[in-house]
Amino acid sequence: MTSSSRRVVVAINPAASFGLGSEVGPALVTTLRGLGHEVTSLTEPDFAQLLDATRAALREKPDALVVGGGDGMVNLGVTALEGTRIPLGIVPSGTGNDMARGLSIPIGDTEAAITALTAALHRPPRVIDAGRIAFDGGRARFACILAAGFDALVNERANRMRWPRGRSRYTIALLIELARLRPIEYRLTLDGVEHVERALLVAVANNLSFGGGMKVAPDASLDDGLFDVVLVRPLGRLAFLRIYPRVFAGTHVTDSRVVVHRAREVRIEAAGVVAYADGERIAPLPVDIHMQEGSLRVLA
């Protein structure tokens, strides 16, 4: 190895064996090796095995962990890196890519993303925050947004559906949940202060967007040591459909029925709701969320 080369672990999305993301992993590994970096490439049949393999590889203390995929792969990286100072690199190739979007990493252009990554390998990493989730039976970590409301209900329904496959399954799940739209009774504890709320959605945001660019928390910052806790209070179906498109521009927060709190410690309680973070299923509520300020290093 030369003084400019790095030891890099590359974890590749196990679901990206076909489609648009199938070429990202090989291109990433080939480019890094071509530049003289020592690369350990990890491919496993599922996320659980890939997480185990990544944790094992990180015990060798490489210079960086790079993930190829979407926000689920970012979540795997964030989880594996807990308690280390190893930086995380991202080459986005998923459907959402909201973490890459929040870090201004090129999206939809693999070559540009790899070029940005290789340049970042030679700079000090950016230090950002992450969130720790505790729930009955376990714990988890996230870097983007934890959601527990309408969007989580849509995810939960779509995950139970066996037909159709692909994105249309989520569209059908959304229409079903929209027809069943009703407020959820929440008990929120924000930095020790209890709030009882009826709301359609609660999002605990470290990053500004989820769902492929929906700016649910447009003023959130990745490195301010605080979560933006966004609540959407009860709306009728027509009002919900009117406000929904505004989320992509982040202008929904000007509506009086959208409330934003800031907190370091958040507890969410509600019956029949499952929390999702970085697009991944976490656990049924209640969950306790703790801000891990400055705990994540990223190559961005």
From TrEMBL:
Keyword check for DNA-binding, yes or no: no
Q: Which GO biological-process labels does this protein carry? A: phospholipid biosynthetic process
What are the required cofactors?
A: Mg(2+)
**Is-annotated flag, keyword Transferase?**
yes
Pfam hit, one: YegS_C
Family statement: Belongs to the diacylglycerol/lipid kinase family.
- Can you name this protein? Diacylglycerol kinase
* Protein's organism: Microcella pacifica
Read off the lineage from the record: Bacteria, Bacillati, Actinomycetota, Actinomycetes, Micrococcales
